[in-house]
Amino acid sequence: MVTEVTDKGEFDKLANGDTPLLVNFGACWCGPCQMIAPLYKELAASAEHKGLRFIKVDVDEADDIVEATDVQSLPTFQVYKHGKVVESWTGGNAEKLRACCEKFCSGASADGAGAEDTEPLPKKARVDQKEEENEEAGKA
Fold first, then answer.
1. Active site residue 28
2. 28 Ramachandran zone, left/alpha/beta (phi>0; psi -120 to 50)
3. pLDDT digits over 89-115, tens only?
4. Longest dimension (CA), the chain
5. pTM metric for this prediction
6. Which of 33, 39, 53, 102 could form a disulfide bond with 26, CB atoms 3.0-4.6 angstroms apart?
7. Which helix (H) or strand (E) holds 9?
């Protein structure tokens, strides 16, 4: 689910939270913003990305947030963890957006260590690892 945020206080609260926050800065008049929006919503709705919070900031509705985050072009994506920007890019690059979601959702652990501390396994390696785990479970 994508939450639209216009209030700076709410933005700050989310950005300072324990859950990594992916922010999509855009505008209704921005062509690239409108093109990437369906993918952003799809990724936000995916069960694979429950470890990442998705919000949207309309730059025309939230001047104070835009000023505080120094957004210069659209779309801009920023990832916050504990109040710090840990990743940022501009442009409607679908592969970059997917890779970012994978990075910040894989490898999260119960002790609060984030995915930025690990490299995600390639999909084939994850499948092979799961098969090995299933085989070992069957032997026990």
1. no
2. alpha
3. 999 999 999 999 999 987 443 333 333
4. 60
5. 0.76
6. 33
7. helix 8-15
